[in-house]
From TrEMBL:
It is a multi-pass membrane protein. It comes from Helianthus annuus (Common sunflower). It comes from the Eukaryota. One of its GO terms (biological process) is potassium ion transport. GO terms for molecular function: antiporter activity. Its main location: membrane. This is Cation/H+ exchanger, sodium/solute symporter superfamily.
């Protein structure tokens, strides 16, 4: 059983959610009188809208909690260009058809307001659906996936701003009144964020011996978020952006974030998400499509929505020099709907800004049908381009130290955590180079437990401290990681896998593929005792390491902790120079280790020394070997291969020297003999 704390999920079906609501709604089963009475009682509308509000608060807070804000800030320019490209084109199309739609649907009221509503319908991108769809199709951690999610957030914010304008049509506030209310809302949001930050720090310090927050503490945090969101809604402002900001600014380190992330991920993805987006399909009523001109209006809105996103996004991708296949996928992802657009239509009708039920139902039908068309196309494009979308494995030998490094480190117990932490700190390089480290806690699931436990029981164990799976180790690992985050201000993503040793390597390799990691670091199957001798750990650890080495698609390293290293937090905050030795014997594995030293050498507290070992005596090619003439070709082939390896080694060292000679890097040529080194040792295999 694999339990992810990241954006990946274990099943598909995001695009079936509106379709399920569509079947239950007035367009499907609710045509029957008995079913219609059950679903559409007198209090049903208020109940459904209140439920949708609570669902929306949970979804947007979780989206902010899981969002890679550092990626968004690093790539803000391309994200804004892609989002604005589609939104601008859809806004132009909405302005062009607004008068025609106003006349044909018999709408009354402000034409400008109707144009704003059509703009939201055409331009909005449902960021939660994009996030979920990218996670289900396993490309959420790729560059194209993160770019799509970030761009969809900008599109959602654009739609929310228009929603605020539409909401203000009823209240008719003056400019000064709007400015005052906006200022008060901003103060409230900032105050809640500051209060939540201090509350989280206080909760993290309480009961350090417990792995998760208690139920009362979780309810306290959720209540603060809910009250803040409801207050903003009462003041006349949508809480969508506010909930996202509260989630994105929530302190990542500590058991508070871990507990909320685990609980909300399970609850939202299995219950709240299907209900909320199923409700968007539930509201569609195709009985209004009883005239040809109404069908033409729906088709026109769908075509202009998809066309506007395609034209605007492809133009932005052409400007950014993004490949065409990625641009097409981005364009269809930007057309996912069913979030702010449905809310805007509902708000306009409830506030009596729009009075045409025909317009309302036609637009809802267009939104739902557009999503039902777009999502399967996205799935088809992702599967067709699965070999090209996202980053392929690039060996560390060719990996630029200026690019983002995704690293997966694994631990079975508390012992190697400090050494792993120090190693990650050393790989951080310069401060402006991104790194995404993951720490996977590998927990053995005994065969008896495996037979007697269900998936539900294993999910419930995540929220309990009464576990049989090394709960003490989990608490100590969490505490060490929390100290590391506090000292270095760098986020580390924690993952837990519970599996028998016979299949544990599959979880490691599968997760490494999902996050597109560049490197996997495994702990050695022995640990050093106080007297300096090595003691074997469980036999399954060694077999797991061997299977990962054989099956992983990326490079794999084995980290041996010799017990002479400082803790990760001391290394992170220390001003002392860290001495690092690279032993280079030659071959592809040593060249991969040399690629690792690129990152190590750029760290301002590291000094790297490369020892190249050369043979002391070179024997003649045929000395001591009695071969016939028929075997001369074999000898020549072996010699040629050795020459190629030596040339590759020399070329790699020369390139490394010429590029990093200004850093603290020393080169020594040594005779092939035995040297004794203390400290952590890293064995690398490409």
């Amino acid at each position: 059983m694999l339990n992810y704390y990241t954006v990946s999920n274990l099943y598909l079906g995001s695009y079936f959610l509106p379709q399920a609501g569509f079947v239950l709604g007035p367009s499907g089963l609710s045509r029957a009188p008995s079913i219609h009475v059950f679903f559409f009682q007198n209090f049903a509308v208020d109940f459904y809208e209140s439920m949708a509000l609570y669902c929306r608060i949970s979804i947007m807070f979780l989206l902010g909690l899981e969002m890679d804000i550092s990626y968004l800030m690093r790539n803000l320019r391309p994200v804004i260009i892609i989002a604005c490209g589609g939104c601008l084109m859809c806004t132009i199309f909405a302005s062009a058809i607004s008068l025609f739609v106003y006349e044909e649907t018999g709408s009354r009221g402000s034409r400008f307001t109707l144009a704003l509503v059509i703009t939201v319908v055409l331009a909005n991108t449902a960021s939660p659906i994009v996030f979920r769809l990218a996670a289900d199709l396993k490309f959420a951690t790729s560059d194209i996936g993160r770019l799509a999610i970030s761009s969809s957030l900008i599109g959602d914010m654009y739609a929310v701003l228009i929603l605020v304008l539409i909401s203000g049509e009823k209240q008719k506030r003056t400019v000064n009144g709007w400015a005052l209310m906006a200022f008060c809302s901003l103060l409230l949001l900032v105050g809640i964020i500051i209060f939540t930050t201090h509350l989280v720090h206080w909760l993290n310090k309480r009961n350090r011996d417990e792995k998760n927050l208690q139920a009362v503490e979780v309810m306290l945090l959720c209540s603060v978020i809910l009250v803040a969101a409801m207050t903003l809604e009462t003041m006349g402002f949508s809480s969508i952006i506010a909930c996202f900001l509260m989630g994105s600014t929530f302190p990542r380190g500590g058991k508070s974030a871990r507990t909320l992330l685990a609980i909300l991920t399970y609850t939202v993805r299995n219950f709240i998400f299907p209900i909320y987006f199923g409700y968007s399909g539930f509201k569609a009523d195709t009985s209004y499509l009883n005239e040809l001109k109404r069908v033409a209006i729906v088709l026109m809105v769908i075509v202009l929505s998809i066309g506007g996103k395609i034209v605007g996004t492809l133009a932005a991708c052409w400007y950014l020099k993004t490949p065409l296949n990625e641009g097409v996928l981005l364009a269809f992802l930007m057309n996912m709907k069913g979030h702010v657009d449905i809310l805007t239509l509902t708000t306009a009708m409830q506030n009596k800004v729009l009075n045409s039920s025909i317009f309302y139902n036609l637009m809802v039908s267009a939104v739902v049908i557009s999503s039902l068309i777009t999502a399967p196309l996205i799935s088809f494009l992702v599967r067709r381009e699965s070999d090209t979308i996202g980053a392929k494995h690039i060996p560390m030998e060719y990996h630029s130290p200026d690019k983002e490094l995704k690293l997966l480190t694994c631990v079975h117990s508390r012992h190697p955590v400090d050494c792993m932490v120090k190693f990650v700190v050393s790989l951080r390089g310069s401060d402006n180079v991104p790194i995404s480290p993951y720490l996977m806690h590998l927990i053995e699931l005994p065969e008896k437990t495996k037979k007697n436990s269900s998936f539900y029981d294993q999910e419930e164990d995540e929220f309990s401290d009464d576990e049989v799976d090394d709960s003490n180790d989990a608490v100590e690992i969490n505490e060490a990681v929390d100290m590391y985050i506090e000292e270095t201000k760098m986020m580390i993503h924690q993952v837990k896998t519970v599996a028998p040793f016979s299949t544990m390597y599959q979880d490691v390799c599968r997760f490494a593929d999902d996050i597109r990691t560049s490197f996997i670091v495994l702990p050695f199957h022995k640990h050093q005792r106080i007297d300096g001798k090595f003691e074997n750990d469980k036999d399954g650890i060694r077999s797991t390491n061997q299977k990962v080495l054989r099956n992983a698609q990326c490079s794999v390293a084995i980290l041996v902790d010799r017990g002479h290293t400082t803790s990760g937090t001391q290394a992170a905050g220390s001003e002392s120079l860290q001495q690092i030795a690279i032993l280079f014997f030659g071959g592809p594995d040593d060249r991969e280790a040399l690629g690792f030293s690129k990152r190590l050498s750029t760290h301002h507290h590291s000094s790297v020394t490369i020892f190249r070992f050369l043979p002391t005596l070179a024997k003649a090619p045929n000395e001591g070997i009695n071969v016939s003439r028929k075997e001369d070709d074999v000898v020549v082939t072996i010699q040629d291969q050795q020459i190629e390896v030596d040339e590759a080694d020399s070329s790699a060292l020369a390139n490394f020297y010429h590029r990093y000679d200004k850093l603290r890097v020393n080169f020594n040529d040594c005779p092939l003999s035995l040297y004794s080194f203390s400290g952590a040792i890293l064995y690398v295999q490409n």
